[in-house]
Structure formats: C-alpha cells, structure tokens
Design brief:
By secondary structure, this protein is mainly alpha-helical. Helices cover about 65% and strands about 0% of the residues. It is globular and about 50 Å long. The chain starts with a helix and ends in a 13-residue tail after the last helix.
C-alpha cells in the first residue's frame, strides 16, 4: 500500500537544489524537496482519488507534497472543515493560489468558502478566496453563477485594490481576467473594471514574473473567440 512516507521518499529523490533555489526566489518555504510540477504528475496519476493519502500528504507541511495533494484530491468529496484547514495552512502562493482553489472550486459550497476567505484578514487566505471564486466562474456554466454577485465583486475590486496587500491585488487582477475570459454576459463589465485597474503593481521579488495586464489579456481572449469557453478544472 502506498503511504505518505513512501511518497515523501520518492519526492526527496526527485528534488534538486536548482529547483529549490528557483522556488525560494518565489517565496517558497524551506520545507520542500524542490520537485518540478512535471515530475509530480506521474505520481499524481498513480494515486489519483486517494483522498486519505492526499490529506496525509498535505498535512506533512512539505511544499511538494502539499502541491501533489491538490493534484490527487477530489475537492467535491472534501469537507468544508478540511478545505478551511487547507486554506489556513497553505505555506506559500503556489499552494494558496493554485492548490487550494483547485480543489475548493470543485466543492458544492465553493462559493460560500470563497466569500468567507475573501474577507479574511490573512493575506494568503484572502488571495485564496479570490482565486477560488475565479475558479468557479471559469469552470461553471453561466446559468449556475450569481451574475449580480460576480458583478458586485468586480466593483469591489476597483474600489479596494489599491488598499489591498500585494498577493491579494495579484489575485483580484486575476479575478477580473477570469470574469472577462469565462463569463460572456459580464464581458463588458470586466473590460471596464480592467480599464480602471490599469497596470497593477505587485512586488514579485527576485523573479522575472510580471502581473498580467487585464485589458490586454481579455482582449487577446476575445480576439481568439474564446470568451465564455469554460475549463474542465483549475488544476494544473
């Protein structure tokens, strides 16, 4: 039987100092092996759907194992308590803005979780909330969305983004892009919000990463004729 311990041993072998160095520049904690996401995928495939194991991997606190846990878990089968714990214990933005939203968006009460997290005082939890709601609009039919609420969140962003912490600003910008890209009835509203935002400034540390310009991103999606084309999952 595959255990969390055996998976950690495998991850340790796959890790490299070069990848650890790269991840550190992006804000990753020291507790990691430095495994490339591409190298996690074969492991994830072999243990896909093993909920118990996914939970155990996340609880190790090791960044690589936590990311793998999100690839493996079925968010629709997780409890709200589990998802709240995952959001609270996310160690850095790859976990709080990708891993946790990826599973949370699959949960039947994803909207409730997202709205709760958006109001959180902790930066990483609030960022997780915006990314989770972005995952909802990207994966669910427009008919299943609360368009009035989504529209109100666009206004909230333009009102609050300047006073928000860096990673929250990054994710707010991402939410505007998500609405403009995936919610056709709100395309014009998203475009207007993107225009108000302009260039969003976020300290990206010692990296070459940049904050996407929402106006350009949405325009590119529109030009490709892909506005409203939903994603099957937010996991990657």
């Amino acid at each position: 039987m595959t255990t969390a311990s055996s998976i950690l041993s495998e991850l340790k072998k796959l890790g490299s100092e070069q990848t650890r160095k790269t991840f550190r520049r992006h804000g990753a904690p020291e507790e990691m092996f430095g495994v490339k996401v591409g190298d996690l995928k074969p492991i994830a495939k072999s243990i896909k759907g093993e909920q118990r194991l996914a939970g155990e991997l996340y609880e190790t606190g090791t960044s690589d194992a936590m990311y793998l846990a999100g690839m493996v878990a079925d968010g629709s089968q997780m409890t709200k308590a589990q998802l709240n714990a995952w959001a609270r214990n996310a160690s850095w933005y790859m976990i709080s803005e990708y891993t946790v939203p990826g599973v949370a968006a699959e949960h039947p009460r994803a909207r409730d979780l997202a709205m709760k997290w958006i109001d959180a005082k902790k930066e990483h939890v609030a960022a997780c909330g915006w990314c989770t709601y972005a995952g909802i609009v990207a994966t669910r039919d427009d008919g299943a969305l609360d368009l009035a609420e989504t529209k109100s969140l666009l206004k909230r962003i333009t009102d609050e983004i300047d006073a928000s912490p860096g990673r929250v600003r990054y994710c707010m910008n991402g939410f505007v892009i998500a609405v403009g890209s995936y919610v056709k009835p709100l395309l014009k509203q998203a475009q207007a919000a993107a225009k108000k935002l302009g260039k969003v400034e976020v300290d990206m540390g010692d990296t070459a990463c940049k904050v996407p310009l929402a106006t350009e991103y949405i325009a590119k999606v529109e030009k490709m004729g892909r506005v409203g084309k939903k994603r099957k999952t937010m996991k990657c």
